[in-house]
Structure formats: C-alpha cells, structure tokens
Specification:
about 110 residues, alpha+beta, about 10% strand, Arc Repressor Mutant, subunit A
Length: about 110
C-alpha cells in the first residue's frame, strides 16, 4: 500500500533527551555541531537533510543524524517525500536547561558559520 507524501508517518520514533554526557558527546563532533547550528538557524521547522551538511558522504551524514537523534537532540520526519530533521529546542531546554544555547553561543564565538 502506498501512502501519499502528505500522510507519511514519522520515519523514526522520537527518543527522549539523553543525559548530559550523551548530549555533550553528540555535540562534540564538529560535523554534528555544524548540523545543529544549521538547524538552529532554520527556525525550528523541518529542514531537508541535504541542506544540513556538505563535505561528507551521505552515509557519513546519516551516521551523524543517527547520533543526534539518539541523543534526543533531533527528530526525523518525511515531508513531501523528502527526509528532514528538526532540532528539538523546547524538549532539550526542558530536560537540560540552557545547554543547547550555551553550546551554540560558544560555537558561534569560536568558529564562523560554514
């Protein structure tokens, strides 16, 4: 049975936000940090995966998306047949107040956006 793009179910279940160690470990990788920075600048809505990385293969990007999802930082969905990611700002803020904004602020101060 085929479903139309407008009625597609989420591609993966949404996981709870992990403990601080797992969240910081996920954000410690420069590629994942850049993905989170791009998601943050996207304003909270679903963003096509292809817009979130460059300079790495699709399989490497998939690994990074999985790590972020397993830390509870992002969720994956399919929008109009396209795989998308969303940064779970409110959920992370509730679980670990201030951590996401502090990491993003520090990253912005240390490195220019790509």
């Amino acid at each position: 049975m085929s479903t139309s793009p407008a009625t597609e179910a989420p591609a993966y279940p949404t996981l709870p936000v992990a403990d601080v160690h797992q969240v910081l470990s996920a954000l410690a990788d420069p590629i994942r940090l850049e993905i989170v920075r791009r998601l943050s600048r996207a304003g909270g809505g679903p963003t096509p995966c292809a817009h979130l990385y460059d300079g790495v293969s699709k399989s490497t990007a998939s690994h990074h998306f999985k790590t972020l999802r397993e830390a509870g930082l992002t969720e994956r969905s399919v929008e109009a047949g396209q795989s998308c990611q969303r940064l779970r700002v409110a959920e992370v803020e509730q679980a670990l107040p201030g951590i996401l904004s502090a990491v993003l602020r520090a990253a912005d101060e240390l490195t220019p956006p790509q």
